[in-house]
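pinned: reference chain
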Amino acid sequence: MGNQTVIRWAAGSLLAAAVCVFGLVWLNTDFQKTAKPPLQVWCAASLKAPLEELAARYEQEFGTQVILQFGGSGALLTTIKATNAAGVFIPADSSYLAIAQEKGLGSECHELAMMCPVLVVSTGNPKQVRGWQDLLNRPDLKLGLCHPASAAIGMMVKSIAQSRGDWESLQASADVMKGTVSELALDLKTGALDVAFVWDQTVAAMRELEKIPCDELAGHSSTVAAMVLTSSQSTATSLHFARWIASPEHGKPVFRKHHFVESPKR
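pinned: its structure tokens
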């Protein structure tokens, strides 16, 4: 091996090592704590508690204002498409990220947590709801659903019901259709509803609610992930935030604190 070849090999090795070191320390530095434009985060309403905490920590640590826009996942995606919005998109199910990628709206994604749909009543189950069939056969129950076009859980429940041939009956039995799980949980808490489909972490966070057995929901889950939107004016900040909230050191403990289940390692 000639001297020039050795020099080129050594230089390449040093460069590769430098890149690795930079990747490891990037999330643990001040990330250039200087004045930066605000970061817009489009986030499913069911993720409100952990994202508010993480946004506050991020602002304090890195000096970047994080503007959180909460809503139903489908409604948020519609807004992002219509306005070519910048920032980070965090829906309640990764299927919305697949749609966004197909339309060229987003790039890098990072998994954050998992959620599962559950059938929920007020604590103590005062109406003695026994499961799925009661929703179809008991007109005395006040049932709440999320709209399939607006919310991830609405889309999931519709898909499950359609596979059983029950969607039209279930939809007809519903007293209300809301845009977010948070609205359904509040209606259950106040007694405006008797039963609804929400996420498991919603129940864990509200002592006024309890889940009841529902075999029809078994095996269904949602993967929560953050996507960097390609129209972001400050892609570096969007990417840094997405990686930071997905990191084992920073984001994952906050999601666990708020009753989210960690995604299984692939």
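why pinned: The first helix runs from residue 3 to 25. The two ends are 41 Å apart (CA to CA).
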